[in-house]
């Protein structure tokens, strides 16, 4: 795994945050919003609470374990992590007037048993590059996406809209929030990209795919190049990217993620 967060060329501070733990097969990216510096408070709380809840949730039960409904524990863990993050951010906003109204988008992945569970709230995205084909795995929770789904505008018109920052779901704004979760089969050679809208607002999907196809085998170079391209295109927002390269199969063996982490690439920077 490799990640980088950059303030861009216009903003004077960075409200994005990211975190990842290769040993657990876990990664999260958050894009904060709110009053003066409150966005970075919200995204920071989200990253901290998500990581803490995931670690606790996987400490005694494997992500691949199924509950009575046949649901992987990975889904339950991510749902609980989003719940805890939402509660912490909302509580902080209520207690501290300078943080009133703050919130954050987020996207998180948890890899287990040759699968990945993806959770997201808002317009931070997860992409997968497989065989040089880029697919957006998440669907934005945004005003523009609703207009596209209703046939009121085209995706091309949406890129020119002045309403890009209007999200319909965010973590911490209300007492509760519904995360969208989906599971996908994983193949060796896959690349998974988490990003804030500071990347995909600046670059077309084809441009993102080109960088990943050219540099995907070198994650540190790929994430740096993506940020460089976003800034070269205007850098109008903070831009954060987190790249996960799947090196080999990782079937679940035993009850703890530590027992299978060696199958996920072994190194510090790659799965």
Automatic annotation (TrEMBL):
InterPro entries: PP2C, PPM-type-like_dom_sf, PPM-type_phosphatase-like_dom. SMART domains: PP2C_SIG (SM00331), PP2Cc (SM00332). GO terms for molecular function: protein serine/threonine phosphatase activity. This is Stp1/IreP family PP2C-type Ser/Thr phosphatase. Signal peptide: none annotated. Gene3D superfamilies: PPM-type phosphatase domain (3.60.40.10). PROSITE patterns: PPM_2. Residues 1-246 form the PPM-type phosphatase domain. NCBIfam families: Stp1_PP2C_phos. It comes from Chitiniphilus eburneus.
């Amino acid at each position: 795994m490799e990640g980088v967060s950059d303030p861009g060329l216009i903003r004077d501070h960075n409200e994005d945050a990211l975190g990842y733990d290769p040993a657990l097969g876990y990664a999260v990216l958050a894009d904060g919003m709110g009053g003066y510096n409150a966005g970075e408070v919200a995204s920071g709380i989200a990253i901290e609470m998500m990581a803490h809840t995931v670690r606790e949730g996987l400490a005694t039960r494997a992500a691949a374990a199924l509950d009575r409904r046949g649901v992987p524990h990975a889904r339950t863990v991510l749902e609980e992590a989003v719940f805890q993050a939402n509660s912490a951010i909302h509580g902080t906003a209520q207690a501290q007037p300078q943080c009133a109204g703050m919130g954050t988008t987020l996207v998180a992945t948890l890899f287990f048993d040759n699968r990945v569970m993806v959770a997201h709230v808002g317009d931070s995205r997860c992409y997968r590059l497989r065989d040089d084909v880029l697919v957006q795995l998440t669907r934005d929770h945004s005003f523009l996406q609703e207009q596209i789904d209703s046939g009121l505008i085209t995706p091309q018109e949406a890129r020119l809209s002045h309403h890009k920052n209007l999200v319909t779901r965010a973590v911490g704004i209300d007492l509760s929030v519904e995360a969208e979760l989906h599971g996908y089969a994983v193949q060796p050679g896959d690349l998974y990209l988490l990003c804030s809208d500071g990347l995909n607002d600046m670059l077309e999907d084809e441009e993102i795919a080109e960088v990943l196809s050219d540099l995907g085998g070198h994650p540190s170079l790929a994430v740096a190049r993506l940020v460089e391209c976003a800034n070269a295109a205007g850098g109008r927002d903070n831009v954060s990217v987190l790249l996960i390269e799947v090196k080999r199969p990782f079937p679940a063996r035993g009850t703890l993620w530590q027992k299978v982490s060696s199958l996920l690439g072994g190194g510090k920077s790659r799965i």
